[in-house]
Amino acid sequence: EISPELADAYLKYAKILTVKNNKAKALEMMKKGLEREPRNSELNLEYAKFMTANSSFAEARDSLQIVIENEPANALAYYYLADCLLSLNDKALARDAYNKALSLDPKQYDLRLRTADRFLESDLISDAISELSDITFKNPKKIKLREKLGNIYFQISNFRGAADEFKAVLKDNPNDYEVNFKIALCYQALDNIDEMFRYVYNAVKLNSNFFPAYYTLGSVYEYKKMEAAAKTCYDRVIKLKPDLPKGYVALAQLYINSNQHASAITVLNNALKAMPDQPEILYNLGMTYLTVKDSKNAKDTLSKLLSVVEKDRETPEYKRVAEIVSSLR
After folding, report:
1. Each residue of 107-136: b (16+ CB within 10 Å) or e?
2. What per-residue string of b and e applies to 164-188 under the rule 16 or more CB within 10 Å gives b?
3. Helix crossing, 7-19 with 23-36: angle to 10°?
4. Start-end of H helices in 122-176
5. Torsion-angle region of residue 142: left (phi > 0), alpha (psi -120 to 50) or beta?
6. pLDDT tens digits for 275-323?
7. What are the pLDDT digits (tens) for 104-118?
8. Rounded CA separation 38/67 (Å)
9. What count of other Cβ atoms lies within 10 Å of the Cβ of residue 92?
10. Cα torsion for 162, 173, 217, 149, to the nearest 10°?
């Protein structure tokens, strides 16, 4: 039994129930505690955290405001208030609350990282970058934060900044094949083919089963007019992911570019055995038949494509293929 006059006892019991995953009972205990002491700061803070976790942001905000009225220097309350306000789409007040939290306790790095994520979710990209940059500057060994910052830079097309962050990650772990690959993609966007090749080649050396790197390496070999090496890469993609169209399509296109249309048709027909209704395969196969003036197979294949993507009949792409089919005899 809990002494009814002790709000703290309700709080402690609620915490035990939360650990035991009895959320309904935990919420009941917190509410009973608040009935007895509605302005208890610790209880209001825990109640707000609970309500935030359960997406009841307005109730959480109200409890946090009580905590702040009682304890104007409570940085945690301001961090959680910023989180609630972002969820309520009150971005200006959220930023104010967050800046206040920072002024009170800038070393709450886990909460700052959470807020940076929330800024991203709310499309406050510059705020997220500012936060992560400051955190990583003060914690240079937090490598995962630098990778997160690199991902954001990549997202906003700051490819040079992204590459710099990813390279910092590689200094700590040069065998991270995914980070090598991310750097390769940065250099691809920057049209630096030599650096792109260097890092994507590292990625496939580090993990021979990482099919995105083989696909990208194949495109580099194509650019360098090294068709045999490109074919080896696309064959590897197909072997690793026989249920994905991109390896087959890339290999078929390689053959088409070399004027080997029969080989391209063979590759795409093999793909259809694994994926008989795959729109990308059907489209490429139909268009290849069209190129070699095989009207019957072109019409049959593109007609099947139209039946597969019937739901898209109002799109310009559907109408264009339909016009092609109607022109074939």
Report:
1. ebeebbbebbebbbebebeebbbebbbebb
2. bbbbbbbeeeeebbbbbbbbbbbbb
3. 170
4. 125-138, 143-155, 159-172
5. beta
6. 999 999 999 999 999 999 999 999 999 999 999 999 998 999 999 999 9
7. 887 776 667 777 777
8. 10
9. 8
10. -20
- What SS3 state is found at 71? coil
pLDDT in tens, 184-195: 999 999 999 999
Cα–Cα distance for residue pair 309/319, rounded to 1 Å = 11
Cα separation, 322 vs 327, whole angstroms: 9
Q: What are 68's two structure tokens?
A: 């702040």
**Residue 136 identity:** T
Give 245-253 contacts, CB < 8 A, sequence gap 24+.
Answer: 245/271, 245/275, 245/278, 245/280, 245/281, 246/215, 246/280, 247/211, 247/215, 248/281, 249/280, 249/281, 249/284, 250/215, 250/218, 250/219, 252/284, 252/288, 253/284
pLDDT of residue 4 exceeding 70: no
Task: Give residue 157's region: left, alpha or beta (phi > 0; psi -120 to 50).
Answer: left
CA 235 to CA 242: how far, in whole Å?
10
Of the candidates 56, 59, 52, 16, the one whose C-alpha atom is nearest the C-alpha of residue 34 is 59
Q: Tell me how far CA of residue 28 lies from CA of 44, 48, 277, in angstroms.
A: 13, 14, 53
Q: Residue 238 CB: number of other CB atoms within 10 A?
A: 23
- Whole-model pTM above 0.70? no
Q: Which amino acid is at 213?
A: A
Q: Please list, residue by residue across 248-268, b when 16 or more beta carbons sit within 10 angstroms of its beta carbon and e when fewer do.
A: bbbbbbbbbeeeebebbbebb
Q: Residue 56 region, left (φ>0) first, then alpha (ψ -120 to 50), else beta? A: beta
Give the list of residues 6+ apart from residue 252 with CB closer than 8 angstroms, or none: 264, 265, 267, 268, 284, 288
- Distance (Å, whole) CA 86 – CA 84: 5
Residue type, 107: K
Alpha-carbon distance of 248 to 41, in angstroms, equals: 62
Other CB atoms within 10 A of residue 308 CB: 15
